[in-house]
Design brief:
The chain is mainly alpha-helical. It is about 60% helix and about 5% strand. A hairpin with a 2-residue loop joins strand 1 and strand 2.
Length: about 325
């Protein structure tokens, strides 16, 4: 029996390594474009640190070749990563070991810290939804079949199986979606300026890309907003500045924890969506700086790197997909009853 269990563990490990591997294939055209982009970015005035983008260990990845889906990365390793994120970054009161719901004021947490927890919980729920919606259903003749796994969805979100926690996780997902939607509407003026060029190396593609992006911003503005970030950090300037810096440090910590993920593909999407959320918060709390930006010249007040823009848009794309997949699961559950 022990030998059989060890064999099963080895097979699961091999499958996880296979499914979680990054496809680093890039076309020659893409490689040339990256060099051109780097040259263009170097010529711009940057007023913020470009993280590890210029590190020799940095790697460009085609996200279309590496969709976010089930990889077999689970169990104690995955649990430790998320447990570390919650324990180290969600402002829990010392009297509570692991706050599954530190949202009530009676817990002693201020609005900002309750919001931070809800954002991380929403991110966690979104990632879990992607894995449930693109689950490895079977593998025949070496060809995997992917699709929604109702059993896995219920295990993570059903009120009974999660002791009432599942619906709250999904509620936090919608909250995160509204936050990032709000950020997109707030950052529109930054991209609407004539000086901002979404450089692709092709003048026509530059114009088309910017037009498409501005259309997205226009759609976000037409959506009724349900979150007013002005209620956050509304205290004295010194206290607000200190709390915002604490938020920033927590996001850096979460990104470092994501580096410990043993699955390459999981780490890729986890870090991308974490940085996307961090960029959204950066936008929300820079509204005054964005409004003061000059039309035809760079400004030290507010700047987004290419990396931040890619993370912001892809993170919002993932959340939008989560909302759509959630609706699909609702239909599947109704039909299965």
């Amino acid at each position: 029996m022990k030998v059989a269990n060890n064999t099963k563990e080895l097979e699961d490990c091999e499958q996880a390594n296979k499914l979680g591997a990054i496809n680093s294939t890039l076309s020659n055209q893409s490689k040339e474009a990256f060099i051109d982009w780097a040259r263009y970015d170097d010529s711009q005035d940057h007023f913020c640190e470009l993280d590890d983008e210029r590190s020799p260990a940095a790697q460009y990845v085609d996200l279309l070749l590496n969709p976010e889906r089930y990889t077999g990365y689970k169990g104690p390793s995955a649990w430790r990563v998320w447990n570390s994120i919650y324990e180290e970054n969600c402002f829990k009161p010392r009297s509570v070991y692991r706050p599954l719901n530190p949202l009530a004021p009676s817990r002693g947490l201020c609005l900002e810290k309750r919001v931070f927890y809800k954002l991380i919980s929403g991110l966690h729920a979104s990632i879990n939804l992607h894995l449930c919606a693109n689950y490895l259903l079977e593998e025949t003749w070496g060809k995997p079949s992917w699709g929604p796994n109702i059993k896995e969805f219920k295990r993570r979100f059903d009120p009974v199986e999660t002791k009432g926690e599942g619906p709250r996780r999904l509620k936090n997902l919608y909250f995160l979606y509204l936050i990032e939607l709000r950020a997109l509407s707030k950052v529109a003026p930054y991209f609407e300026r004539s000086i901002v060029d979404l450089y692709t190396g092709n003048v026509e593609d530059d114009a088309d890309t910017k037009t498409l992006l501005l259309n997205i911003f226009q759609d976000t503005k037409s959506f009724p907003m349900h979150f007013d970030e002005k209620s956050m950090f509304a205290g004295d300037k010194k206290g607000a500045k200190s709390l915002k810096e604490e938020f920033r440090l927590h996001f850096k910590n979460i990104s470092r924890i994501m580096d410990c993920v043993g699955c390459d593909k999981c780490r890729l999407w986890g870090k991308l969506q974490t940085q996307g959320l961090g960029t959204a918060l950066k936008i929300l709390f820079s509204e005054k700086e964005i409004q003061k930006l000059p039309e035809n010249s760079p400004s030290k007040g507010f700047q987004l790197t290419r990396q931040e823009i890619v993370a912001l848009l892809n993170a919002f794309g993932r959340l939008s997909t989560s909302i759509r997949e959630l609706q699909n699961f609702k239909v599947l559950l109704q039909h299965s009853r």
